[in-house]
Amino acid sequence: MHKESDIRIPLILGDKSYKDITDDIIRPIESKAPKGWYILITIFAIFGLWGVGCIVYLLGTGIGTWGLNKTVEWAWDITNFVWWVGIGHAGTLISAVLLLFRQKWRMAINRAAEAMTIFAVMMAGLFPLIHMGRLWVGYWVFPLPNQFGSLWVNFNSPLLWDVFAISTYFSVGLVFWYIGLIPDFATIRDRVTSPVAKRAYSVLSFGWSGNAKAWNRFETVSLVLAGLATPLVFSVHSIVSFDFATSIIPGWHTTIFPPYFVSGAVFSGFAMVQTLMLILRKAFRLEAYLHTKHIEYMNIVIMVTGSIVGVAYITELFISWYSGVEYEAYAFLNRATGPYWWAYAAMMTCNVVSPQFFWSRKLRTSLTFTFVLSIVVNIGMWFERFVIIVTSIHRDYLPSAWTYFHPTWVDIGVYVGTMGLFFVLYLLFARYFPVMPIAELKTILKSSGQNFKEGYGNGAGYYDGHGHDDHPIVAEDAMIEEDVVEISAVKELSSEEIEITNKSLLERLGGADASNKDDLKLISGVGPVLEEKLNEVGIFTYAQIAKMAKQDYEALDSLIGSFPEGAERDDWAAQAAKLINENN
Amino acid sequence: MADTVIYAMYDDDDVTKEAAKKMVAKGIHIADVFSPFPIHGIDPIIGIKETRLGIVAFMFGITGLTLAMIAIRYMMIVDWHMNIGGKPNFDFLGNMPSFVPIMFEFTVLCAAHGMAFTYFLRNGTLPGMPSHNPDPRTTDDRFVVEIRPEENTQFSIEELSAFVKSTPIVEIEEKVIK
Question: Among residues A551, A554, A546, which one has the least CA distance to residue A571?
């Protein structure tokens, strides 16, 4: 087991056992969705439908329905594309780069961030598709043999690089996410009772059994995929920046773009993760797994990448003057003081000034402030792309062609629509998928769980009830020797004694028969075998178990040979009482 | 009875590992271990070799890179060369710098998907496949060691289960498989 210093703040708070982790993460899937979920999904579905309507109208009528004109021939479509792709960078960065660096705090957020990544890339991919204008010949972007004298796609073009980069990123991200989800789907499959859900999750879990060889492969595959995804993340946004950097438009033709876009992407991606996770942890009561320390770590990433972005902005300004190229210098002067000064000011304030607040520990550990700032950053990053794209082209070399961009209702509708679709997908994910990696969280419980670090409760010595100071190395050989004696010392009773014990036990607990039996397996610590044995003794219902006291546990102990010592610790009686309440 | 399986259930990963070590030291061959998460360090104890999926990924990556180079060379240099921005269009190496992004992306695409597909096939995890974990709790908080008496003919079933009971189990089950 990988040891972690006791000084480090635990990543899992409270007294959690492996079972608690399963219960906490799966609870939202097993229980009924709250009313708020239905309200939210309806609102976002309406937005999404509106967006779909706008896209259909656009495809039927043409790109002219957007506010583009002869000078500004690329505006909101590509702004939204870059914005969504940028958001879609945090997930893979968290799960791949932080996995390579063995940052355990990633486990609280990687599943939800990867889901966000996949949905954001879906929304991003929509924009190049529809701005082709003729969606039905979209397959022309692939190098397919054709009848035009075999005219191939241009492998020198950044736009084609983009096609390959985005599709590779999306499909590899999806596979990475799904491979991690499989063991958790298996956990859900083995718990749910409704036949429809059981069937659905058993298909989704691909028949995962969790045997040692499968886990061995799982770990290697995760590591290799992380290794592959890490350069992929950097390549994707570098290539997105090439869309601009390889052109010779002043304001776009900048070699600083790749690193500047990548850090901008990480910046906006983490901001979106904050927005979503702060809501999710509250709604799902997952504060024990995603607490202030996690939020603080993410805020530090936001502060660092925000500062890198700020340095890039200022470098650009300086170089435009220093280069001595007057077109270049004008492009930047116009950006800051021209008709779009307000967009430039918004970008500078949101992206450069606002993250500097996180130098204060008080502010970066404040959840409300973080939430507000994460939204500010998202707005700022949208403006960054808008500023780069529109202000660079709205005043070209011919002053008579100078113009101003006005979005139409279709521009706005498509953008709002992608937000709607994104949140619909995200809400479905939150409702039906495990929002945190259950299996991975269990692997860090012993090294980073509060109970294990501090040595109480379910934690240290979880299996034998001793503090971890008594057991610096868990499971010493000597301990197993002791247990040999204990287990073989179970009293052998004569058949008469068994009958008497059994009879008095049932007198205390009340009789029941197989006809009104409850599913005893729902009690923690009871499996199919133990359930059968309890039934043999004459225990069929929760009502009986709820009455159990110390002497009854002892009686059961002598009646059932391999009775677990854990029954009293797990407090069957209280569990059964709870189950009775839930059933009524 | 050659068709019996003994399932020993534990409630902690380190206990499971120690118990497996004890059993192996005694000469018992462990068929498999089922757990809700990877138990680090159990593989060498029960004799599981390091997976070769990393090599598979490398092979798929090399294949992808080769395919990308062959295809781009054919399309851009051999079949129909175009003068694009005055870039060298008569030899592959001269024009290669601008082919690097797609060569890289295609390498990653093939390596990742090739490895993922091999992983699914080797694990037998595909949509609709049946699971074979002995107890539903092994995906929650229980750890099961599977022992097949037919692989341990030097012990009787009674001896095996007596030894298993001497480790800190929480449950033991002997199952007859058909």
Answer: A546
